[in-house]
Amino acid sequence: MLKSVSLHVEEAKKSIVKLGKDHAASDVQVAALGVKVTKHGNEIRGARASSTKVAGCEKNISSALQVCGLLMDRVEAIEAKANAQPAVVSSGGVKLGGLDARVAVLETNTKKPLTIHQPISIDNGRWTFNGAHGAEEWLKNGGVDDTKALPFEAGSLVADPVFHWGQANSDGVVTKAEFQAEEVHQTKTARTAISSLLASAGQSVYPADLMGNRGSTGLGVGGTMSKISSYDMFNRGDGSTGVYDVTLKGLAQLRTVETIRITDDLRDFPELRRLALFMFEYSNNFLIDLLRWVDTNYSNMLVNMAVTNKDEKATCWKLQLVMFRTVWEVLWEQRLTAKHAYSLKPFRGLVTSFHASLKTHVVMGEFRKHMFSEHP
Questions:
Q1: Phi and psi, residue 121, nearest 5°
Q2: Which residues contact 10 (CB under 8 A, 6 or more apart)?
């Protein structure tokens, strides 16, 4: 089936090239081509859902899906050109766009978030929880008194990947004014710096340090994740200054610091401590795997699609950003239930955040299991 679809894709590519050179292309031609590419994009996704291996196929399903994504983006660009006044097409080809539409396509392949009643298994059944109620009972059995103030930081037990990303990307400098502001904030809110960082992370779909202009929802300059709008900003190739290397280094340092802090903070709660250390380590490794996948998958995309010129490389990176952004959006579906946990009473807030982190852990496990090649 995939071979047949691949042939259709190749036909669509040839048609697009021909149509891109035809300055008098009609709306009917463009619309027909759009239907054709969309149809076979759906067929590829259908094949992908039914099997991850197709014997005798030269290209794997994931690559075919990426090709279809680029084709659909190209169709949108050509359609816009056909609807506009005739203009000369440069030898560089048609400008690619429409990447926001790809987000919607990718999101349709995700599962619905886990409910508060669904059972959760951590580390192949080492820890099991019967939904949110089971998480609450586990905390109580572990020694947490629901009638008193929490004797430890919620951030010691709750493993939130956005929280950990933010910690890893701290520049390591705290001015006197910043420290004093933290002290005033803690007095006013009765929340420590760690608790405030966790509460802040809980409001964000993406890591805040990757965000750009809040007035835009697009990708690239002035938009979401504008700090990595180009591959050179993500990985500068010098081993030290790009987001890739800075975050990897920060995560390595965070492992040492947080392991000590969590161990000390939960010293009187041995079972909580064991799970907290496991989930922190897992979240840390998830972020490392995610970064390496982004870098490797982009490089493989260039090779598999024989991309050489600057514009095509930029388009491939934009597609990679769509996939990267969608990973965070899928995680957000699980993390969302803890968005206002900071405003609840201490124990109830802990239960809410803890249960959300358990759900997020399950999804992170699915991503790692498939090396981010398909949505959980």
A1: -115, 130
A2: none
* Whole-number Å distance between alpha carbons of 163 and 283: 10
3-state secondary structure at position 252: helix
Q: Alpha carbon of 36 to those of 15, 30, 42, 93, 307: distances in Å?
A: 10, 10, 10, 21, 24
| 64-77 tens-digit pLDDT | 455 555 555 554 55
The residue type at 84: A
Reference 38, options 71, 82, 60; nearest CA is 71
> How does DSSP classify residue 152?
S
- DSSP letters spanning 67-94: HHHHHHHHHHHHHHHHHS---PPPTT-P
Strands (E), the chain: 119-122, 127-130
User: Which residues are within 8 A (CB) of 262 and not within 5 positions of it... i.e. 6 or more apart?
Assistant: 156, 273, 276, 277, 280
Beta-bridge partner residues of 120: 129
Element containing residue 264 per DSSP (H, E):
helix 243-265
CA distance linking residue 237 with residue 231, whole number of Å: 10
Which tokens in the block code for residue 319?
A: 């597609």
User: Cβ atoms within 10 A of the Cβ of 122, count?
Assistant: 17
Position with higher pLDDT, 38 vs 297? 297
Note whether 226 and 243 are within 8 A (CB).
no
Separation between Cα atoms, residue 349 and residue 198, nearest integer Å? 12
Cα–Cα distance measured from residue 341 to residue 41, given in angstroms and rounded to the nearest whole number: 40
DSSP 3-state of 117: coil
**What sign has the CA pseudo-torsion 337, 343, 344, 350?**
positive
What Cα–Cα distance (Å) separates residue 338 from each residue in 152, 160, 194, 220?
Answer: 18, 10, 16, 29
Beta-bridged to residue 224, according to DSSP, are: 219
Q: Tell me the sheet residues that pair with 121.
A: 128
Q: 323 in helix, strand or coil?
A: helix
Q: What is the pLDDT of residues 237-289, one digit of tens each?
A: 999 899 999 999 999 999 999 999 999 999 999 999 999 999 999 999 999 99
Which candidate, 52, 251, 256, places its Cα nearest to that of 161? 251
DSSP classification of residue 219: B
